[in-house]
Design goal:
The chain is mostly beta strands. The protein is built from no helices and 35 strands. The strands form nine sheets. Strands 25, 26, 27, 28, 29 and 30 form a six-stranded antiparallel sheet that branches. Strands 12, 13, 14, 15 and 16 form a five-stranded antiparallel sheet that branches. Strands 3-4-5-6 form a four-stranded mixed sheet, with no helix packed on it.
Length: 387
């Protein structure tokens, strides 16, 4: 048997041309390529043909040309794995919990946040990574506001790591992504007990690229500074819903366009004055949900928790519509979705560990799905890919 070893083949004046192709052990390692308006005759398996008349690419397989297609995969801000942060067993926590949204069951431990125990934070996802968005951090002697962004890979169990910083400390934030850019509505800035100081409701939006670790940049302003609001989004818009600006409960909604920095624009109204609710959406369609919350009709009299599920079409400005109901009255809950369903988790009636599900396309009544790990009041959540 003979052995031929070739380190390089060179032609200094022009490219090396193997006009008959090259075979090693009877296998083609260079395929012919033709650009023409008509199909080449007598092709060999592996040959490529670019159809110049129709801008299509073909490859010869089993003695005939077959069209090669390219499928564009749109970025998502969701996945089939749900996450919950913020509270566990009635106190602030560093725990990250998770569960599969495709099969009813209970939450399990995923890992830990890097910043220690947190409270009144925010959460969003680009489908690959989930992000914790500032909030209150417990130092052992009390709560202080921070501006930290941290993230974790949704497909791999483990701890979060530092990503960057928002432009200022804040709490009661909400935010979402279009799959590549995150926009954060900062709720309240200043001290942790400054609800009556109107200057702390700044209405500031920050944004950052989810692909590259770094600090956030100013995006624009909300049309009304507020905290304890929630949101939903699709690949184009994020809609902020309801909220609180001492002493008023809010029903207003406004929206930003992810790819264009600037101030928020009026969208419409919720069916009731409401804050500390959960948002989710929009999955594979355009429907966004607002679930539960604390309602004070007309900002008069006493407030009460509600079980209402409201829905909007994220692409069409207008008022929310009453859909179905949660299992019980609920507030301070988290929300997330995959392509077809939304989950609400946290407080439900006198229980604080309930995960419940509703179908995005119908906003129908919720059904029981499973349980969090202990008391999950004051929850925040997102979803991402499981693999």
């Amino acid at each position: 048997m003979s052995t031929l070893k070739v380190d390089s083949i060179r032609n200094y004046d022009s490219a090396v041309d193997f006009s008959q192709g090259m075979k090693v052990g009877g296998l083609d390692i260079v395929q012919n390529y033709t650009e023409s308006g008509s199909e080449p005759s007598s092709p060999s398996n592996g040959d490529y043909w670019w159809d110049t008349g129709n801008d299509k690419l073909y490859r010869c397989m089993d003695g005939e040309f077959k069209e090669l297609g390219i499928t564009s995969v749109a970025p998502h801000n969701y996945g089939d794995r749900a996450f919950q942060i913020g509270y566990k067993n009635g106190s602030q926590s560093s725990d990250i919990s998770y569960w599969s949204m495709t099969s009813a069951g209970n939450a399990a431990d995923f890992g830990d946040l890097s910043s220690g125990t947190v409270y009144k934070t925010g959460c969003c996802s680009d489908g690959t990574y989930a992000f914790r968005l500032a909030g209150q951090n417990y130092t052992g002697s009390g709560f202080v506001l921070d501006n930290e962004i941290e993230r974790w890979a949704t497909a791999t169990l483990g701890n979060a790591s530092d990503f960057g910083d928002l432009t200022s400390v804040s709490m009661n934030n909400h935010g979402d992504t279009n799959g590549s850019r995150a926009v954060i509505s900062k709720g309240r800035v200043g001290s942790a007990s400054s609800s009556s100081d109107q200057s702390n409701y700044t209405g500031q939006f920050d944004y950052f690229s989810t692909a590259t670790a770094g600090n956030a940049t100013d995006f624009g302003d909300d049309d009304i500074g507020r905290d304890q609001s929630t949101c939903c989004a699709n690949a184009t818009r994020m809609v902020s819903m309801g909220g609180y600006r001492d002493p008023n409960y809010l029903k207003v909604m406004d929206y930003i366009t992810f790819d264009t920095t600037g101030n928020a624009v009026s969208f419409g109204d919720l069916t009731q004055e409401n804050h500390i609710a959960a948002g989710a959406g929009t999955g594979a369609g355009q429907r966004g949900l607002h679930m539960g919350g604390l309602n004070k009709p007309g900002n008069t009299g006493s407030s009460s928790y509600v079980n209402r599920i409201e829905y909007i079409d994220v692409d069409t400005a207008g008022n929310a519509t009453d859909g179905g109901d949660l299992l019980d009255v609920a507030g301070y809950g988290g929300g997330c979705n995959n392509a077809t369903v939304a989950h609400h988790f946290g407080r439900s009636g006198s229980s604080y560990d309930v995960i419940q599900q509703t179908v995005l396309a119908t906003a129908a009544n919720a059904t029981d799905f499973g349980d969090l790990i202990g008391n999950g009041d004051l929850s925040f959540g997102a979803s991402g890919a499981a693999s």
